Automatic annotation (TrEMBL):
Protein family per UniProt: Belongs to the class-IV pyridoxal-phosphate-dependent aminotransferase family.
Source organism phylogeny: Bacteria, Pseudomonadati, Pseudomonadota, Betaproteobacteria, Burkholderiales
Keyword Transferase in record: yes
Protein name per the record: Probable class IV aminotransferase
Sorted UniProt keywords: Aminotransferase, Pyridoxal phosphate, Transferase
Pfam families with a match to the protein in the record: Aminotran_4
GO biological process terms, semicolon-separated: amino acid biosynthetic process; carboxylic acid biosynthetic process
One Gene Ontology MF term: transaminase activity
Cofactor: pyridoxal 5'-phosphate
Amino acid sequence: MKAAPVAARRHRRAAMSAPILSKELPMIPGMPGDSQVYLNGEFTRLDEAKISVLDRGFIFGDGIYEVVPVYDGKVFRMTEHLNRLDRSLAALRIAAPMDRAGWESVIAGLIARSAQPTCIIYLQVTRGVCKRDHAFPTEPVAPTVFGMAAAFSPPGAAQRTQGLSAIAIDDERWLHCEIKSVSLLGNVLAKQQAVDAGVDEVVQFRDGWLTEGSSTNIWVVSGGKLLAPPKNNLILEGIRYGLMGELAEAAGLPFEARRISREEVAAADELMLTSATKEVLPIVRLDGKAVGAGKPGPVYEQLRAGYDARIAAL
């Protein structure tokens, strides 16, 4: 009998040694299979929600997302979050799959079906399912719309009173960070640098100028003034960006959005980060060195109190 070609034999050996993958969905801690999610017009069980492997969000990361915090069943800054969602859709030229009332109905439905009254609502829209091609589909394609409620624990006393640590790194992401895109590999790699260094977050710089964290906005206090990088294509305008300006004004703190050098950050009196899930927290160590006095500062305390008051007023 004639021996099979070498390539064929190698292929068979590789196939025999390949792991047998289960078609069962893996259990995800904190997300039971019977959790209710929203997918393309319907609420369904998490373990029954399915999308095509040809979805452009899966193939290309061609989509956008939004994260909306909910406290005791009440949505925080819903208008601002939905405004940003609309901006991201427009930037990618994805037609809005529903109007504002539709989004509010989806969010309300997810909250009502959630076992946790304090949670985050995750919304995602991709360009939809079509033949794999880098260019946008030429024929109309329905976007894929997904939403879920996930457990959310606001920052605890230790983080609020002891603060966080961070390292400074170069910002190596793309040039459209203003879009809340699901293409997050640059952010993922940046966050992993923080994990590998044993710190909570990274503070990123592009050409020596402050941009943001891996998933947070960064704030600098210098000489009694609150500083933030300018809103442009190099940062995602966090919803707390506008809120922090409001809180600073209410507290009588000068606020300025401008370019901030790496040297200014290193010499800051205080550093803070903000995000939907981190709220506002102090960074007390950067690259192993104390920031200011090495503890949460007075400006942070003022802004934190104002933030808490906004949540309590919902």
